[in-house]
């Protein structure tokens, strides 16, 4: 930018030098034909914008960078909505057979199938505690009744308390027939025992009984009143067995 003013000043200096050599009476100035024309340029103006250049070719793919450091774990997100109920799965494999459990004691709540069957077959039976009293309606003497109860898996009814005595009484009232109990004094007169030989622990004798009338009353019958009477074992009475 400093070169252009310098050149202009230099050219004007030469031209003026040649003019100053003329005589004072001569007022015509002459230009040196060898002098350069001076063109003073004003400030440049912006031209029209050029066309956009074409895109360059895509460069080669760079190498894979090294893996960055693992960031810290963020806070847990909110619980999402419950999913749909899944379909029914296939049945699992059959498990191994378990150990055999301990045998439970006999009770009303765990009666055996045979006892439950008897209750169904003889609906007029009575249950007291762990005992079941029932009749088939058969009548016979003491020995035949004792044998039938034994064959059925029981024995002639042998009440050991008032509740059991009342259960047998209900059957007597229902059939309106006295029954033989599993009690007698066949071995020793006046000493009544159960069929297993044990002395009786409960009794409900009618007033004045037992009296061993005519010396032949070794068995015990139960009336509809629930009272006991000694009777000949050869008489026929209703069967009531206990299980």
TrEMBL record:
CDD domains (UniProt xref): CLECT_collectin_like
Any Pfam family: Collagen
InterPro entries (alphabetical): C-type_lectin-like, C-type_lectin-like/link_sf, C-type_lectin_CS, Ca-dependent_lectin, Collagen, Collectin_CTLD, CTDL_fold
Keyword Translocase: no
Secretion signal, residue range per the UniProt entry: 1-22
Entry's localization field: Secreted
Start-end of Basic and acidic residues biased regions: 51-64
A GO-annotated cellular component: collagen trimer
Protein's GO biological process: innate immune response
SMART domains associated with the record: CLECT (SM00034)
UniProt-recorded Gene Ontology molecular function terms: carbohydrate binding
Cited PROSITE patterns: C_TYPE_LECTIN_1, C_TYPE_LECTIN_2
Domain C-type lectin as annotated: residue spans: 141-242
UniProtKB keywords: Calcium, Collagen, Disulfide bond, Immunity, Innate immunity, Lectin, Secreted, Signal
Renumbered residue ranges of the record's region Disordered: 47-105
Gly residues bias locations: 83-92
The protein's name: C-type lectin domain-containing protein
Organism for this UniProt entry: Chelydra serpentina (Snapping turtle)
């Amino acid at each position: 930018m400093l070169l252009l003013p310098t050149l202009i000043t230099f050219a004007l200096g030469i031209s003026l030098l040649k003019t100053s050599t003329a005589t004072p009476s001569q007022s015509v100035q002459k230009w040196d034909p060898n002098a350069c024309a001076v063109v003073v340029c004003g400030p440049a103006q912006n031209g029209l914008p050029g066309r956009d250049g074409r895109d360059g070719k895509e460069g080669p793919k760079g190498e894979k960078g090294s893996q960055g450091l693992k960031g810290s774990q963020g806070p847990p997100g909110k619980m999402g909505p419950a999913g749909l109920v899944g379909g029914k799965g296939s049945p699992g494999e059959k498990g191994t057979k378990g150990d055999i459990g301990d045998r439970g004691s006999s009770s009303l709540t765990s009666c055996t199938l045979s006892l439950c069957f008897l209750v169904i077959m003889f609906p007029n039976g009575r249950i007291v505690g762990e005992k079941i009293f029932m009749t088939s309606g058969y009548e016979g003497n003491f020995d035949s009744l004792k044998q039938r109860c034994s064959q059925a898996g029981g024995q002639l009814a042998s009440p050991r308390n008032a509740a059991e005595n009342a259960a047998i009484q209900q059957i007597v009232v229902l059939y309106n027939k006295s029954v033989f109990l599993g009690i007698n004094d066949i071995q020793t007169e006046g000493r009544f025992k159960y069929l297993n030989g044990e002395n009786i622990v409960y009794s409900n004798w009618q007033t004045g009984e037992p009296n061993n009338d005519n010396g032949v009353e070794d068995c015990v019958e139960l009336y509809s009143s629930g009272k006991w009477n000694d009777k000949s074992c050869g008489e026929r009475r209703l069967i009531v067995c206990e299980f």
